[in-house]
Design brief:
The structure is a homodimer.
Chain A lengths: L14 H19 L5 H12 L6 H10 L6 H13 L3 E4 L4 E4 L10 E5 L5 E4 L2 H13 L3 E12 L1 H6 L1
Parallel strand pairs in A: 3-5
Antiparallel strand pairs in A: 1-2, 3-4
Helix pairs in contact in A: 1-2, 2-4, 3-4
Chain B binds a DNA duplex through helix 4.
Amino acid sequence: MNSQSDNAVFQQHNHASCIHDALITAKKLCKERGLRLTDTRLRVLELIWQSHKPIGAYDILAQFGQEGRNSAPPTVYRALEFLQENGLVHRIASLNAFMGCVCPQEGHQGGFLICKQCKRAQEITEDTLRKQLLSLAQEQDFEVESMTLEISGLCTTCRTAQ
Amino acid sequence: MNSQSDNAVFQQHNHASCIHDALITAKKLCKERGLRLTDTRLRVLELIWQSHKPIGAYDILAQFGQEGRNSAPPTVYRALEFLQENGLVHRIASLNAFMGCVCPQEGHQGGFLICKQCKRAQEITEDTLRKQLLSLAQEQDFEVESMTLEISGLCTTCRTAQ
DNA sequence: GCTCAATTGTTATAACATTACATTTCTTAC
DNA sequence: GTAAGAAATGTAATGTTATAACAATTGAGC
């Protein structure tokens, strides 16, 4: 049993089915767009989803090693690049780590609540937030290409546990 | 003459006086708080302000080299750590670079508009934004410690120049 | 099956950051 | 003024993250 399984914020759904769903969605999405979700890419995406927290490129690489794939960094980074470009994965700059996107179909720019204690991250999908940020940039006559919003602190579980 | 000197967004004030003011403010602030703004720390802060765009730790190190200081990375990183801790400098995670804080007295969490073309960054000081983000986190019962907001795109000047 | 483009492999290296421990410099109490 | 302890800096080594450059392979469409 996962000790976090009762954490409403950080564990909104059954993890196994969530991984499964994410992969199904990714496959569908790639098919629709004529993108090649190759073995490597699929496996990287799977490992990212399997991790309950943001995962580093070299962690993925290490997993590849354990699985007998003798890959070098570019293999992983290229897969990550593909996944990011197509909105399947987000990079969290403040952690140098990667997370599966919970709503890849939307091509959005997510925000994250990152817990310093348990290292989990929760994606913020509020569209109102995004619109506010866009209008803020617009006020400055700034043309937004991408946004990085990473809020670091303590999640409910970790705070109450203290 | 600086080609960007007429850019209202990215060049809100005379740069020389802006550096000067920032250093004065920093000195005052450190004195008030009983902090030691040593030679190294002051010079790092100065170099950061002299750069018209976010500057990397190793760029600072290179400058140190040119000035005859034979410093190693820890020297610079320690100064940066001090400056960050005391709100004088922000780290921009998506760039691995540092910028002077325009309002160090407030101990705030800034946001940035980062231009991909000219590489300049403009700090967002809107307090309403900050409050909105805090309330958003609060809705999720998340205790905020720090925030990273980095919006990447094209500034007015670069967009109109295209 | 051939061709071209996309993907992956491979080697090396760049870029960013920290650890650990020695040395120096400051501050404070005497 | 000076000794003791704390703070800051020097130094060497290494850890971590990411990319460049070019070769080899694979896959899709003809």
